[in-house]
Automatic annotation (TrEMBL):
This is IGSF1 protein. Residues 3-70 form the Ig-like domain. PROSITE patterns: IG_LIKE (PS50835). Gene3D superfamilies: Immunoglobulins. Keywords: Disulfide bond, Glycoprotein, Immunoglobulin domain, Repeat, Signal. It comes from the Eukaryota. InterPro entries: Ig-like_dom, Ig-like_dom_sf, Ig-like_fold, Ig-like_Receptors_ImmuneReg, Ig_sub, Immunoglobulin_dom. One of its GO terms (biological process) is cell surface receptor signaling pathway. Pfam families: ig.
């Protein structure tokens, strides 16, 4: 069908070896099951009734790296599919960045908000994440570590975090920053 399942990682970003994260799939179905696939192969089925299934990754290894997606199945028929979610497991070698929000975490609708990701490394670029989205919200190149949200609305609310990396010889990653909850009044 034309319906899609939303799929995201919680918390978002690259996972450290031995770390944990959860693949979340949600869909407004009534009587089916969620089936998780990795690199095109069926991994497991969750008999969740309702709208959400969570598949845990704990004590992560390189074997957990791959492309994941969810199907919502009822009686053998696939009712919906998610987009692809890329999961990566990498050693964290950079310092942990700090996420800040100006003017603050609680703002009035229509305000302008700036999210800044600061890391003690001159060559690092950073990804900004909004929990619940499979895609990176924004890429912050090394020269510009802030992201502006103009005229915020309820749709901008949520839990933001950032993660930084360098591409010098190979990719090097930081841990995920502190998470900040943006509230729009």
């Amino acid at each position: 069908g034309g319906s899609t399942i939303s799929i995201f990682l919680k918390p978002p970003g690259v996972i450290s070896p031995g770390g944990s994260s959860t693949i979340c799939c949600s869909y407004q179905g009534v009587s089916g099951n969620f089936v998780l696939y990795k690199n095109g192969h069926q991994l497991r089925t969750l008999k969740e009734r309702g709208s959400r299934a969570e598949f845990s990754i704990s004590n992560a290894t390189q074997n957990d790296t791959g492309t994941y997606n969810c199907h919502y199945v009822d009686g053998g028929a696939v009712l919906a599919r998610s987009d692809i979610l890329d999961v990566r497991v990498q050693e964290f070698q950079l310092p942990r960045p700090v996420l800040s929000v100006l003017p603050g975490c609680e703002v009035s609708a229509g305000a302008d908000v700036t999210l800044c990701c600061t890391i003690a490394h001159s060559a690092a670029g950073c990804f900004l994440y909004l929990e619940g989205q499979a895609e990176v919200l924004n890429f912050l190149p090394k020269a510009q570590n802030c992201f502006n949200l103009s005229r915020v609305h309820k749709g901008n609310e949520g839990r933001y975090s950032c993660q930084c990396f360098t591409r010098e010889v190979s990719f090097q990653w930081s841990a995920l920053s502190n998470a900040l909850d943006l509230v729009v009044r």
